[in-house]
Amino acid sequence: MSGIDLLCEIIAQGEKPGAASFNNRPEYSLLLRGGYIRDGGVVQSVVCQDCDDPHDAEVLFEDGKYGYVCPAHGFVSLDRGSVSNIKPDVAKIVSGLADAFGCKRRKTSPVSGTTWRIGVVESLGGDIGLYLHPRLISS
């Protein structure tokens, strides 16, 4: 898998996918170092699998630790890495695409909702506008 494949997979997950699903892949650190993804905070809830009846549990921060409360086991500590979110830096992605295509008339903010104008490339038939709409389905 290439870095672009992983980036596409991350973008397809929506606004803030969990980092634990991706951070074991070699391309992840490259995307992070390149600034194409960044820390997005922590997830709101997790599934408790410590008891016989798996349930949704709100992630809490208590006494300097992340975790959740299980009715059967009390406070269950979690490693921050297991509850971290990541967020694609779409402005950085758009800028990189504009560089790759040699675009003129660039824009690094959305033009409408989540649609971004990358820029314009010249062709024999006239200028062609390039746009990025990260997901066709809203999350």
Keywords:
single chain; 139 residues; alpha+beta; 2 domains; three-stranded antiparallel sheet; 25% helix; 35% strand
What does this 3D model show about the protein?
Helices cover 25% and strands 35% of the residues. The chain is built from 4 helices and 10 strands; from the N terminus they run ααββββββαβαβββ. The protein has a 3-stranded antiparallel beta sheet with strand order 4-5-6. It is elongated and about 70 Å long. The model has no long low-confidence stretch (mean pLDDT 87).
Topology:
Blueprint (H helix, E strand, L loop, with lengths): L2 H10 L13 H9 L2 E6 L2 E4 L6 E4 L1 E3 L2 E6 L3 E5 L1 H4 E5 L1 H12 L8 E3 L2 E7 L6 E5 L7
Antiparallel strand pairs: 1-7, 2-3, 4-5, 5-6, 8-9, 9-10
